Amino acid sequence: MMQNVHLAPETDEDDLYSGYNDYNPTYDTEELENDTAFQQAVRTSHGRRPPITAKIPSTAVTRPVATGYGSKTSLASSMGRPMTGAIQDGVTRPMTAVRAAGFTKAALRGSAFDPLGQSRGPAPPLEAKNEDSPEEKIRQLEKKVNELVEESCIANSCGDLKLALEKAKDAGRKERILVRQREQVTTPENINLDLTYSVLLNLASQYSANEMYAEALTTFQVIVKNKMFSNAGRLKVNMGNIYLKQRNYSKAIKFYRMALDQIPSVHKEMRIKIMQNIGVTFIKTGQYSDAINSFEHIMSMAPNLKAGFNLILSYFAVGDRDKMKKAFQKLIAVPLEIDEDDKYISPSDDPHTNLVIEAIKNDRLRQMERERCVEVVKASQYVELANDLEINKAITYLRQKDFNQAVETLKMFEKKDSRVKSAAATNLSFLYYLENEFAQASSYADLAVNSDRYNPSALTNKGNTVFANGDYEKAAEFYKEALRNDSSCTEALYNIGLTYKRLNRLDEALDCFLKLHTILRNSAQVLYQIANVYELMEDPHQAIEWLMQLISVVPTDSRALSKLGELYDSEGDKSQAFQYYYESYRYFPSNIEVIEWLGAYYIDTQFCEKAIQYFERASLIQPTQVKWQLMVASCFRRSGNYQKALDTYKDIHRKFPENVECLRFLVRLCTDIGLKEVQEYATKLKRLEKMKEIREQRIKSGRDGSGGPRSRREGSASSDSGQNCSASSKGERLSAKLRALPGTNEPYESSSNKEIDASYVDPLGPQIERPKTAAKKRIDEDDFADEELGDDLLPE
């Protein structure tokens, strides 16, 4: 090949036209006859090519070139590529393929179109995992090590330090086995360093938690000295903590500083914590000047309460009073990140925390803070805000349930401006009303009204005190005046509706509650009052309709559901009554009236067995009432279980030996069954009946000897009471099944346990006077209109 390569002469190196007349000898067809390799290729099979057809395309066939001898032969490429079949350096070049790559039409001839290869059938099944392979064993062992580390951490968090240490040791042993197996199977570079790091760190931490400090330090040293672990130097902080616990302060400071050098400056918070540890260690060693340097640096970079407090102590130790004052100023400038109102409210039930808060709640610093705050406000241009601060202080006392302090604070306003006095007196009236001290409540309500006659909340409170004294007409006048001053006072509108109900002016009461319903669409109290008024107007269908709206607002209210059951029962719809009584029982299974109705329902429907569970629950609620246990025994007797009934009656007799009805049933059952005990029970029954007759005769003789006029008066009184009972029989019939439902004509008392239900949310409940926080030049009535006391009268 080199004989065909012509190099340009050195003399013509700068000649731009050198090689212009040169030509490639490969294209010299005249010399082909003398070309030995070419002639051999022509004579042997290496030079033969299959004929070119149109059906089989060829990509490797070269175009034949006519030679001077009249034959067509293939030539080598112009780049010097040897021809197919040519012999070069004694080696014959093999022939190249003449068939195109890929598929051909001949290959597809006679086959169906199947681009997705579905005709080949399903894929072969996956190769089964070989659990005995070394890789799989290593994987399972690594999983086990991770599980042990997690279990160790969980045990530590639960306080079981011994178990945590055992799990950590087990994880360390298995991790060493894992490393040896990996070294046998793979190269050392494939060892899981993260797993090794976590195992060692957990083991060192568990040693430290169990106060095995020597072992913990040894394990930490293994981690720190291993250069393959990145960021392991920061663990020297842990080592410093251990030395600090061992009171080896010099080594603790040494390791803290080593850790500080290895932590980059971007981790500002961690560096501050380490410096704080260094400062505390210096204090323990008595090196206060070094501690001051550490804490001063912290207060200049990221001030916090602990560092500021320690800095003050350090200045105190060296006797530098001036710097103590400056440090204290820096300390109080640190934000607490706690709401001012919640600063002295305990966040938990921890006794120690409560004692600390109680100690600092009214200490000299707190008193000075409060006085300085009020003085600063009074000396400023916002003098009016000082009164707001005092009222806000009273509200804070209320939030802390310190009612005495709240009352004392509000009483300070009795000699203030009239409008501020009205606001404070309104709140005082509210507090005394809640404590059922109606005389004091009325006195402060008068003071609030006299100070500001146009204060609707003061007028509402005054109406409440008058209502509590039974003067309903006068209470209605106060409520009307409150509505004239503020037509949006919903408390006054609600209370005047209750007043009209008490006066039996049901149409006017209904108008008030319907008007209130347009304002408070989803108020449970308003919906209940409308339903109750319709019930009093003897319109049960409307009452049911409004009660249905009520349970759509409070679907789990047991008493509203039982009231619906009562109304359906009065209408004769037992199935609907049972549905609502059962729902009421499901939400509140301790209502005796509901339990009694359900038990009676099952007895009427001949399902005495199901009634037993209700009467048994009633006997648990009222264990001293013998009738529930008698009903249980009666259900057993009606269902044919006479032996169980007999045992129940005997148990009742042991608890209530003077119950005549129980003895009568015992005598009857023993007679029917044929027991010998019948004579004993019969004797007891006769003795009790005789004692009862003697007692009745004594009572009768006592009445006869007491004199005629008195007896006539008693008879008259009894007849009057009988008439009253007959007159009120309809009302008793309406409430016979649910006496626990709130009365509809009594004023609301916060101390009473007769509420509609715990699920009710009182939208009209008593409000507390709250001052506005915005600065104003004066306090007008709008500042307190929607936040004052509006002690609405709700059903008992």
Could you characterize what this model shows?
By secondary structure, the protein is mainly alpha-helical. The chain is 61% helix and 1% strand. The protein has helices spanning 36-43, 105-108, 134-157, 161-185, 193-209, 213-225, 236-245, 249-262, 268-285, 288-301, 305-318, 321-332, 351-361, 364-379, 384-399, 403-411, 418-434, 438-451, 456-468, 472-485, 490-502, 506-519, 524-536, 540-553, 558-570, 574-587, 592-604, 608-621, 626-638, 642-655, 660-673, 678-704, 708-727, 729-735; strands spanning 65-66, 72-73, 87-88, 91-92. The strands form 2 sheets. The protein has a two-stranded antiparallel ribbon with strand order 1-2. A two-stranded antiparallel sheet has the order 3-4. A hairpin with a 5-residue loop joins strand 1 (65-66) and strand 2 (72-73). The longest helix is centred in the C-terminal third of the chain and has 27 residues, at 678-704. It is extended and about 160 Å long. The model is unreliable at 1-13, 53-80 and 708-796 (pLDDT under 50).
The total strand number stands at 4
The helix/strand class is mainly alpha
Give average pLDDT, whole number: 75
- Lateral strand order in the biggest sheet: 1-2
The biggest beta sheet is recorded as: 2 strands, antiparallel
Broad shape: extended
Uncertain spans: 1-13, 53-80, 708-796
Number of helices: 34
C-alpha Rg (nearest Å):
51 Å
Distance between the termini: 120 Å
Helix content: 55-70%
Q: Strand percentage, roughly?
A: under 5%
Biased composition (Polar residues): 720-729
Region (Disordered): 1-28, 112-136, 696-796
Keywords: Cell projection, Cilium, Cilium biogenesis/degradation, Cytoplasm, Cytoskeleton, Flagellum, Repeat, TPR repeat
Biased composition (Basic and acidic residues): 769-780
